[in-house]
Design a protein that fits this description.
Blueprint: H1 10-18, E1 40-45, E2 49-50, E3 56-62, E4 71-75, E5 78-80, E6 82-86, E7 89-93, E8 99-108, E9 115-122, E10 126-129, E11 138-143, E12 149-153, E13 157-161, E14 167-172, E15 179-184, E16 190-194, E17 197-203, E18 208-209, E19 211-220, E20 222-225, E21 231-234, E22 240-243, E23 249-252, E24 262-266, E25 269-273, E26 277-282, E27 294-298, E28 310-315, E29 321-325, E30 331-334, E31 340-342, E32 352-357, E33 362-367, E34 376-380
Parallel strand pairs: 2-9, 14-18
Antiparallel strand pairs: 1-3, 3-7, 4-5, 4-8, 6-7, 8-9, 10-34, 11-12, 12-13, 13-14, 15-16, 16-17, 17-19, 20-21, 21-22, 22-23, 24-25, 25-26, 26-27, 28-29, 29-30, 30-31, 32-33, 33-34
Length: 393
Amino acid sequence: MKKAIFFSLWPLLVLFIAGCEYDHPKAVWDPNESLGNNVAITSIEPAGRADAGVQTIKITGEYFSSEILKNWVFFGGVRTSVLTCSPTELIVNRPNTSGDSLSVEVVVDKAYILGKYPGYGVAQVARLYGNLPSKNIIQMMDLDAQENIYALRNDKSVMKISTNESPEPFGSRDFRGNASDLKVGPGGQVFIKQFNHTNLYVIPAEGGVTVKYGSFAKQGSFIDFDENANCYTVGKNNGVSVLKPDLTSAVVGDYEDLDATWIRACNGFLYVSDATGIYRSQVLGPDGSLGNKAKIFDLTQVPGYDASSILSFAVAQSGNLYLATDNIKPLLMVSVEGTAQPFYSEIIIPNSGQLVWGNGHFAYINMTEDNPTNDIFRIDMAEQGAAYQGRMR
């Protein structure tokens, strides 16, 4: 009789389990992991709110990094650039956002606890303006005494944008060649300069088609009026010509060496720019005669702007200059003492073209053909613009 033989599997199972390790995922929470320092925000300056004109914001706190690239700062979820840093202080650019109660957050590399500061206000300082159709590029523009905008588009039409932002057709330019500048002048008429030519054209205050107004002594491209209704033009190495109210013209000043890019008559001076500098001459009398020019600003001396060009500029009542450039930070503010700093550098986009001040603290700028957004922006400059007397007469 055969006997059954039984084998126990239990010892083999024990040996199998002992020879294998269970491959489990790493724990989500490691109680021994270092969480770094607890970043904290204790105060923000300006306190409570950054109003128009504020360019930078100071954040005071604890455990910030002393390396700029290891700090990230957000206002209402929108990141802004850190300019300087220390373990207890960050200087940041004004953010490209606005609101009355924005959460401010500071994230520091290798610190799990971020710093938070609730309820900070940032005023809106720039926005799209005018409700214009985007299909036509705005080549140039100016404002009248009531702050209505007159904008010449690349289809040769001139649109009037009232202060309620309702655009309507105003007129059109009807001359050969290209237009290079537009200004509202005496009597509320809209003057348009023919590029690199002696001709000046005008649309009557009630609107319509351009008619020839007068001729300058020499060719020019950019124009502006002074308080005596003299119209100045300047262009490429032809100096400055003045067209007087009696329609006689003369060459004035000593600007023949400049390839000019813009012109402004205000504060008793005529200001002229070329690609890299701003010059000015005192207006000596009602005939538009000028004193010698003096260079008051050199763009090549501003770090980061030495390869940039001035496209236009505006003058404040205080004498501060605001330059529109082709730089990635397009607006530059130059104080009367000569110091320069980017203006709303996180907010204003390139390429910004003609910068035109209204009658208060708002300025307007159009985007150039190089920018996909062909619109007008209104900017709160936080100070009064110089009175442009030509449009007031």
